[in-house]
Design brief:
Blueprint: E1 20-25, E2 32-37, E3 41-46, E4 51-57, E5 63-68, E6 75-80, E7 84-89, E8 102-105, E9 110-115, E10 121-126, E11 130-135, E12 141-146, E13 161-162, E14 168-173, E15 177-182, E16 188-191, E17 200-205, E18 212-217, E19 222-226
Antiparallel strand pairs: 1-2, 2-3, 3-4, 5-6, 6-7, 7-8, 9-10, 10-11, 11-12, 13-14, 14-15, 15-16, 17-18, 18-19
Length: 228
């Protein structure tokens, strides 16, 4: 989108009516965009050549998120409907039988996987009752933290996102609340309010105001939280 001209340019479309399930700008510049479609396939769109320049088969089912390491620009994480999230080295992708650097497994589809601000952790969220925490300081060892997520409640999928540092993860709670998970103690603090009348399925951090976050619900409302 060109804000000054108020126009959009079509960068990519497929003729197979296949949904694009994830998108992420390349960390080394805005001339490349990574996106996912079909069954576990990730592609790189190079704006300089006006089309897809690379395609990688990474998972057996749909990729839900793509996220690059904040400092090591060769590392990228993908979450998959095939119950896994993996970390890859883009320099080795495209070769025969591409191998992941690390993989975390859940009992259900993995809905998100995001690097922490320092890049020392990777957080995953799934349809099961756990949030995964990979610690890169210990050769990507994995810890699963309980998260209340009963399957009988029909709402959109949760995604665990990072706060302003590596200390806390934030994710919606199906009891119409918001969970803050401490990565050091693995203790979950649940934020509740009588004003919150629906389940916050999506959470966003304010980029400049530390302690201010928003939760969006399927009832069409956004709730703001602020640390006192």
């Amino acid at each position: 989108m060109d804000i000054e001209k108020e126009v959009f340019d079509m960068l990519y479309t497929n003729d197979r009516n296949i949904m694009l399930s994830a998108i992420c700008c390349a960390p080394h510049g805005y001339q490349s965009v990574y996106f996912a479609e079909a069954f576990g396939e990730m592609k790189m769109l190079d704006l300089r050549v006006g089309g897809v320049s690379n395609s990688y088969d990474l998972h057996e089912k749909r990729i839900n998120t793509i996220d690059f390491h904040p400092h090591n620009l060769h590392l990228v994480s993908t979450s998959s409907a095939y119950c896994t999230a993996s970390i890859w080295d883009v320099r080795n992708m495209g070769k025969r039988q591409t191998k992941s650097i690390a993989t975390v497994r859940h009992d259900s589809a993995v809905l998100s996987s995001y690097f922490s601000p320092s890049g020392n952790y990777l957080a995953t969220a799934s349809f099961d009752d756990n949030v995964g925490l990979l610690n890169g300081l210990d050769s990507w060892s994995t810890t699963l933290i309980y998260h209340y997520n009963p399957k009988r409640t029909a709402v959109s999928s949760f995604r665990a996102i990072w706060g302003w540092d590596d200390q806390y993860l934030f994710i919606g709670n199906k009891e119409k609340a918001l969970d803050a998970i401490c990565t050091s103690t693995k203790i979950t603090t649940t934020l509740r309010s009588p004003l919150l009348t629906a389940i916050p399925t999506r959470v966003a951090m304010h980029p400049f105001s530390c302690g201010t976050l928003a939760g969006a619900t399927e009832s069409g409302r956004v709730y703001l939280w602020r640390k006192h």
